[in-house]
Amino acid sequence: MTTREVEFGDGTAGVVSLNAPVLRYPANPILTAHQVNVMWQEPHLQVVTVHNAGAAALAVWGL
After folding, report:
1. How far is Cα 49 from Cα 63, in angstroms, rounded to an integer?
2. Is the pTM of this model over 0.70?
3. Lesser CB count within 10 Å: N end or C end of the chain?
4. Between the CA of residue 52 and those of 27, 28, 31, 41, 60, what are the distances in Å?
5. CA triplet 33, 40, 46: central angle to 5 degrees?
6. What stretches of the chain adopt beta strand conformation (E)?
7. What b/e string do you get for 25-55 counting C-beta neighbours within 10 Å, with b at 16 or more?
8. First-to-last CA distance in the chain?
9. Which of 60, 61, 62, 58 lies closest to 8 in space, CA to CA?
10. What is the 8-class DSSP label of residue 34?
């Protein structure tokens, strides 16, 4: 199976593969809707669900 080591740039790293394609950055907190609503108290900012999304940059060398 193809695997790839991913480095976050701060010394932390992990391995991703076709069976495990997601690697969570340890310092990225998982938030609940309640935690978001404590900070965003205006009615138009209140949320019911929170999607803890991430972004990735992939650099491929030697292809």
Report:
1. 40
2. no
3. C
4. 13, 9, 7, 19, 26
5. 55
6. 3-7, 13-17
7. eeeeeeeeeeeeeeeeeeeeeeeeeeeeeee
8. 18
9. 58
10. H
Q: Identify the burial level of 3 via C-beta atoms within 10 angstroms of its C-beta, where 0-12 means exposed, 13-18 middle and 19 or more buried.
A: exposed
Q: Give the pair of three-digit tokens for residue 10.
A: 């701060």
Structure tokens, 15: 């391995």
